[in-house]
Design brief:
By secondary structure, the chain is mostly helical. About 75% of the residues lie in helices and about 0% in strands. It has two domains: about 45 residues, no CATH class; about 80 residues, no CATH class. The protein has ten helices and no strands.
Length: about 170
Amino acid sequence: MGWLVKLLGGNIFGGIDKILSRFVANKDSVETNIHDEQMAAQNAMAAEFQMRGRRFWLDSVIDFFNRLPRPLFALHVIALMYWAVLDPITFGAAMTSLSLMPLWLAGVVAQVILLFMGGRMLHNMTFDRVSPKKIKEVLEVQREILALKADDKPMSLDAIKEWNRKRQEG
């Protein structure tokens, strides 16, 4: 910006550099601000992992439990994906039963998991009840899913040959 100020007359007209700084940022001050911000972030992170003096053992236990929920949520999400692959029938039955959860309760659970604590969203929620018809539908779907699991027997050699024959014909 220095060359632009000199081109427009420097400080002859008084304050041109101040006017120009409104439209064109001073690179030196921008870089200094970015550096200061990054150093403050690094210092804050480093302070978390440095030993604090005169610390009681209970402080360490409380810190451990404060840092535990996020990794546990992440591990449970990964475990859900494995469960869906390893045992899809039971996974389907469990997820079908979750459909009975009222919308407001699902919203509260989601907000707690997202560490938002649910307060901002609860005032817009409608508190509905699950109808007996919905419960019957879910139980019927679960029976069908579990019946699939009960029928999960290895195919006989004749059945495999018949299946291969039909597949080759079609």
